[in-house]
Input
Amino acid sequence: MAKSMTSIVPVLMCGGAGTRLWPLSRKSYPKQFVPLIGDTSLFQASALRLTGGAFTPPLVLTNADFRFIVQEQLTDIEIDDASIMIEPDARNTAPAILAAALHLQKTQPDALMLIAPSDHVIPDSDAFLESINAAVDAARKGQLVTFGIQPTHPETGYGYLELSKPVEDNSLSPIKLKRFVEKPSATNALKMVNSGDYLWNAGIFLFSVKSIVEAFQKHEPGMVECVSKSVDDLQMDLGFMRLDPESWNRAQSISIDYAVMERTENLSVVPFSGGWSDLGGWDAVLRETGPDKHGVSTSGHVTVMDCQDSLIRSEDNGLEVVGIGLKNIIAVAMPDAVLIADASRAQDVKLAVTELKAKQARQAEQFPRDYRPWGWFESIAKGERFQVKRIQVKPGVSLSLQSHHHRAEHWIVVSGTAKVTINEDVKLVTENQSVYIPVGSVHRLENPGKLPVVLIEVQTGSYLGEDDIIRYEDKYARD
Output
């Protein structure tokens, strides 16, 4: 990216649930954190795409449940200087973007803000950076610039942008935006694509801090009042910026399009003809993962015979998936749930999640592996009055000092060395050794080494829920 005299702050929106990509994407661990394509997560790829040149360290907006996942994934790609702002509650994109703008008004008032979802795929980063560069001058002059994607097919899952004039071939010049269009029917989508006057709405924006704050002050003064107080009263918590919840929850829950973009006059759009997808369904994943000559894309331990136009994935090393004679099928297998769907019904996966919620199925929202700031755990066996978990603890970290009312625990170290506290007793437990924690004992597990500790935990008792825990000390400030 050409060097700009104005710094650009990437503002990464990182709070979505991605239910259309169930079972791999769930509320507790949504699609932006999953390596759907390649070895990095979508969030990591988004952060890496917007580094160097005129870009400052990113500002990430997320919720409390994801804050440590965000921090860890940024550290894994050597981005250690990001700012992470925690939304007390999901209020859609308008309050989140306004909070970022008001914070930057105090810290970088002359900067441009690049608003980018963290779950999109953009294979050609250089072409995308050229589009951003083409929008800088317009943004400096007070335009609110959005980026429109040249349609490749009549998609009904996206909103559209109607242009004031058709796009010239390979032009990156900003064009005046006529209006936003909601997700159309198949018939209208075909008409819009054939007209050449419409682009897909990617939800990516570039504007100055000053311009977007002024737009909110004009069109949503009530929201400015609530969010300003929330930003003024934010609290620092282990390096995270926690917005004040009382003021925040008074702000209207509304998208940036409805709150500002559809009501303002200073709108421009820069066309982008490079590859792009919001991975809004498994059909999009099939397109983006490079299917073979038969239209088949596989991932993990998969064997296929005489299949066509299908996506078949195994998301567990111990699970072998075999497809025979499949056509237009999506099959995604996880340890606790399996999706099998006709590819033409990919958007209906969201409806299936709603049905699972109604049944109170744990799989609707809970990922089989629970991520914590210290590592992760997963249940590998469960029955009446017992549960077996596999636990991995990162080097140099510790769990909280805690006790349980209803369960005892037996820890068997599989690899690494754990430092275990049980009441007044502290000792090292190494590979192939075990330790027993009676009901009610105050205990803690630490990893003093440089390698992860892996252990098997056997719980026994009358109640084995995760809420049976009393924390006495916790470095992660959890209740």
Residues 285-358 form one domain. The longest strand covers residues 198-208.
